[in-house]
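User: For documentation purposes, I need each entry recorded in a consistent format: the amino acid sequence on its own, followed directly by the corresponding structure tokens. There are two entries in this batch. Please keep commentary to a minimum and don't merge the entries.

Assistant: Recorded as requested. Entry 1:
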Amino acid sequence: MLPVVNRPVLSHILELLRRHGFTDVVMTLQYLAGQIQDYYGDGKSWGLNIRYVIEEAPLGTAGSVRNADFLFKDEPILVISGDALTDLDLTAMVEFHRARRSHFTMALTHVPDPLEYGVINVRLDGRIAQFAEKPSWGGVTSDTVNTGIYIVEPQVMARMPRNTRLDWSQDIFPGMLARGEPFYGWVGEGYWCDIGTLREYHRANSDLLTGRLDLGQIGARVGSGIWAGGAVEIAPDAQLFGPIYLGDEVKIKRGVVIHGPSVIRDYTILDNHARVQHSVIWRNCYIGEGAMLHGAVVGRQCSVKARAMIFEGAVIGDGTVIGEDALVQPGVKIWPEKNIDNGALVSHSLIWGAQGRRMLFGRYGVTGVVNVDLTPDFVARLGAAFGSFLPKGSRVTINRDPHRSSRMIKRALVSGLPSAGNNVIDLRTLPIPVARYYTRAVGAAGGVHIRLSPYDPRVVDVRFMGGNGLNLTREQERGVERIFFREDYRRAYLDDIGNIEYAQDAGEVYARGYLESLDVGAIRAARFKVVVDYAYSPAVDVLPDLLDKLQVEVLPLNARVDAGRVSLSQEEFRAGRMQLARISQVLDGLSLGVRLDVGGERLFVVDDTGASVPDEIMCAAMTALVFRTYPGSTVVVTVDQPLIFERLAARYGGRIRRCAMDPQALMQAAAEGGVLMAGDGSGYFVFPRLHPAIDGLFALGKLLELLARQEVRLSQVIAELPPFYVATGDVEGDWETKGSVMRCLIEQLSRLRHETLDGIKIYLNDDEWVLIRPDSDTSRFHLVAEARSEAVAQELIADYGGIVHRFVKSRCLKDSGERGEEDI
């Protein structure tokens, strides 16, 4: 029922259906069902026959349709969402469906940012080849998305149980693909907008005013780019700069200035010298003398008094009164029926929205410049959002690195969690793997780790985990985002506010599991001598005792916590690894040297000769040791790693499984069962026997165990590895065309063997491949290539980087020239 220009979105949809000859309409309703039924009645005034089915409980996108199909005879059904604005040619879609004898046809469209939609790949004949529901950028292989408009044949509906919660993408589409049913996608050339955010709502109003979509006449044209309903009054000295829509009986008084795109709906009054710019004002509102609105949405029956100012991104709920001289700052949302005092400053600003962030979570959690993006009030609300997402009364662990910025952010977050009725277990300063293990061991519902970014000392990362100790899934992140952006926090009553307690046994609980998961006897018998660079990290509070129990002789470096050494530049990091290698080279009887990152997650290794081991080589060496020690075992590596892993599996009788290039994907793959190790070639290792989480501390223990059981030195294992040659490169892109570039690549590469596990991986032959992957947090594309020589690998990067660059420059437009197969 959200109005777009002159009528609710649902009315626009009904008019579209009528124009394309659909006359029998069934609405499935739950929220505001009575209001919708009262508004549309039996549909006769719309030239339609409208019937209603009320859901007593949510049945999902497919279950609700199945619940209503008894009102239709044995015939195809067109399914269309009531909250999307479109002028797609439904007649052409029906013709496409019939011509292909399809059982299920979905309408598709191209969008610049496909992350919030179901991304679809179609074959040349229109058959659905692959779909990914709301992927990350690594999973985006096209800018073609599902619009939620379907034509469904009776035989598909007949297989679906009634009164059951069903989702099209999760419960119906996979089975149709597996059975090879006639399942098609029709790409529409018209307009489509899913109005799920304030930005999209403004865009929909603007696009309808500027003629980007055709939904019929919106009013009488009374000036250049100005449309009006009946009985509109405009003062002679008012200045109107279109596009603008004025509803029935709108009154524009003396000296008013309106800049479009703006919508002023029925019976609204703009008093003398009011100024409105890029705003939407719903019906029956009063905008007082000298008031100013810029980029705002004002709900029904609101009164904005004289000289009040409302700024960009603000939303004023129905029936609200904004007092004289009040100022509503950017991004503020005011709930319905509120009264704002004269001269009040309403400053609850949404900083991330003002910065144009596309989502709250990035690859490293919620990140931002401390006290600029991540302010204490912002983080307190973030804690309240996470707490509201978790069950009331549940326990949440929280810990941090040693830096004072992390301490400040942690304390702000701690204030938000109890406000939502959650009990906080404060782990103080601990390595991340210890916090993950403890979260799972004590049955907490979730956890939070706050750290200074290892890549930028100005930035803090707030990393959230579930009760299993792993990072939140993207679906869980979206749940937290919805609560945060809607400010739909759960507020605990006085007696329900959560407690804050300090854990005293986290290190002991982790140590017990650590030692129980290793062959302690084998390690003790080997009498290892190891240099350990603690890098001033909290690992120094945990690891020395563990290595002592394993009877490992340790030469410690940088074995104290230093808040000033938490974040290192690339030069400082390389210098640290070189220092470790130099010290290791002069020690007699050395077994190996290791360096941990500040969080205790990544492990960097020097072998027994004092040579620094590249991270990919270390991952391969660890894999070889696993296969030699546990024949037939399974190792997971990321999709960008070289084919040496498959060669090692063939040599020793193991199995390799690939996963996406993401720490969460690595941990999820390790947690699936039957996996002995997972690694990504950048120092991350997972050994699920302890817990399916990235853990540099346990990776060191496992490396010692594997070397002890095989009775070999690390340098020997590395010397026996097959050679491989890999090159990497980047191509600058832009946000608007990332999805379309991936689609164009898929279309052009369809003749070659490829996979889309994470980006697009093209197999040129048994020894050569190229991976093209969009970055999750920037507009770049990353390329990785493997070949039989380093020179050929570099050539592949140059060749395929050039292809990506051409697609970026041409913006993948149909009129950008023919692209033949010789381009690939």
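Entry 2:
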Amino acid sequence: MENPGEPSIPARHESPDEGLSPPADYHELVEEKLLAHHQGSQDGGPQTGVTRSRASSFAPGSLKLERTVPEFERLTVIPPPDEQAQKDGIARSQAWLHTNFLAPHLSTEDQGEIMSEIQADHGSSPAPALTPELKELYSSLQRCLELRDKYMSVSLQRLGDDPRHYDSDNSGGVMPGDSDSNHPRLKPWKTYPPPPPPHWKFKPHNASAPEISHTQDGDVPFDFSSCEIPGDKYMSVSLQELGDDPRHYDGEAAGGAMPEGSSSNPPRFKPWKIYPPPPPPHWRLKPHNASAPEITHTQDGDVPFDFSSCEIPNGMPWEWKIDEKGIFQVYEDISVPDSRPLFDIPTIKDFFVDLDTVLNIVADGPTKSFAFRRLKYLSSKWQMYTLLNEYQELADMKRVPHRDFYNLRKVDTHVHHSSMMNQKHLLRFIKHKIKHYPDDKVIVRDGKELTLREVFESLNLTAYDLSIDTLDMHAHQEAFHRFDKFNLKYNPIGESRLREIFMKTDNYIQGRYLAELTQEVMADLEQSKYQNCEWRISIYGRSSAEWDKLAKWIVHNKLYSHNVRWLVQIPRLYDVYKANGTIGNFADLLHNIFVPLFEVTKDPSTHPELHVFLQRVVGIDCVDDESKPERRIYRKFPYPKDWNTPQNPPYSYWMYYMFANMASLNHWRQARGFNTFVFRPHSGEAGDTDHLAAAFLTAHSISHGILLRKVPALQYLFYLKQIGLAMSPLSNNALFLAYERNPLPEFFKIGLNVSLSTDDPLQFHFTKEPLLEEYSVAAHIYKLGQSGLAELARNSVIQSGFEMEAKRHWIGKKWYLPDAAGNDINKTNVPDKRLAFRHNTLMEELKLIYSNQDAPIAPRSSLTSQLDTSADTVAVQAMAMG
């Protein structure tokens, strides 16, 4: 029976860290040493026979921050030397001794003396050697992480790879072959028009910039003629180097030089101007009697740009072609015999070999058990943290002036453009058009033009008859696990012609109604100021002209907003297009999707509107119903030109070809100083969990990911790599998973990089501010505190594709740094200690995987300094000991 007067020592079979329990006579020995130590201190005499030994900080693997590119820091783990094991054993023993027994007033040296005598009597307690099973398990997890890093490096999706990520505060690396180390690789990205001074424009004192005329409310008009476009000269890009994005130079620090013409006479960097610029505070609140310059046509209060005065970059000599494997390859001179592509893109064979490696690892029994236990440990560790720090976090947040949940920057990282509004907004818009513009010719049927009045007369409806129930666009119970019925909800009143009239960009009225709806929603976002969106708009791949039509629709309708960026989504509808004869094989679809992008990268003058539109595009999505069954009709997948069957290619096949061609495109765009794209597909909403493995290798971040709850090993890998998850619990509740069963709160506790998004406000939300509605429901059902909501909002900004300049203003100048160093509580309202806990916990897990040691029991912090033994501190140390 355990003596209640003595500290409890965990039994070997109860502890996950076997071999770390103290010897049986540990307590008696410690009492002897304490008594001798106290006696010696009272007598004032030296303590003989004592060897001073300072225990090293517990660090199975030391960490190194590699600064390949200034301030963008990547974690690498250095394996410990062999002699580190003995030091680790001493440190672990000291940690156990202090936490369980030693008096709090003892200094570090005193503790070291006692530990030295104990070690002399009982020998060191080295860290236990790993079992062969654990060695193999750690090695397999390391292999998965390395594969993820390889694919992110190849596709230029990391922070710092996109030219938009450089704002002259981060000068980038050195141009290959440039002897001057002061020459950065890329010109600072300028988002045009620039943010209005002095609100949040960080401009170097010695930097010259073109004069910009501001309107009375401080906003800068959209004048395309002033747009800064990278020049003709391009840099030589190495695939292994960390990429640089000119868009992320914001003028906070003086820029370097862009190699253009002679390197001996380089031009100065100019801060990238966000276009249009974010307005100053209260920009929409103008006095009623204020005079303003007369504007003939405005877009949300901004002066529209003049496209005819726009300067477009010239072409460059590089060429491209599609190889026999379906990959768009870039060549310096395609006419040279045996010329090789400039960029090395993984082959489809490499991809499926790597995918099989990941799938085999995550399906391995010991790996699943290990990951499950670590995830449970992380969740429990978070509960301990909240119990100890909840009130302190609240006190820290109360000390922050002005900032609260309502004025935190939030980004809706997953919302489809065609359903961006709520039902009431759409109903009001339709009624307005029927009442005031009934004679608009809106559609052609059987060769006859029909007016809006005639369309509704054919439906036996008037404006008075319309209601929310009549529209019937909300996803109710009948859509649960019925994605086919959900797709029908995009048709107002169940009529596809109304969808064509009001919700399409390419129709008889050239998308005018949808453009007006978009402008109204943009105005609402700008009025709210703190809510931002990344709308996903479709390119189907039926024709290569789709890109130009979409870009012209965006540019000519002036659909630019400070609060909006775009993603392009590619629906996986090959089987539909093949059935109706639109395309002949999968290569035709890839041709229609990527040819315009490579053409505009080679020579922007061939697609000027597309070049302008792509500056606001941050990524590519691949979307469709994941629950559709995938039948393996080939033992070995054919290349796209040979995929001519009616069967839709599997998810992983789509993912590879979207990823590979985007990677090749990114390298070329980066070389020209144009912005690059990231891959952010839908994954893990339904269907096969193998989809998540393909996304793990290829995607920058994903939407949904709720099926990770079924694959603990893959969930653990997503945690270790901090892959973004844009989760939509209200959407999942209507389609696939009840709200209370959604894994979002558990993912959040574990420490996955999760954010809240709306998906389809038209189908799932009721209020004018659907993103706030999403936060509100989650806060109530999942009992999220104010600090939790603030952390989710911060995650959404980090996951988003907004320029570095915007992110600096929204969440802090050094937001990309780990730990509390990257946090500005005055902007994020997230307590520093919360982010420090998140980072320290992640580092402990990475050290566990890379150090080839068993799970540690010692606290992460150094034990050579005086340890606080207050109740809370001891509890935190116990928590860190696992």
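Summary note for entry 2:
DSSP finds 28 helices and 15 strands in the chain.
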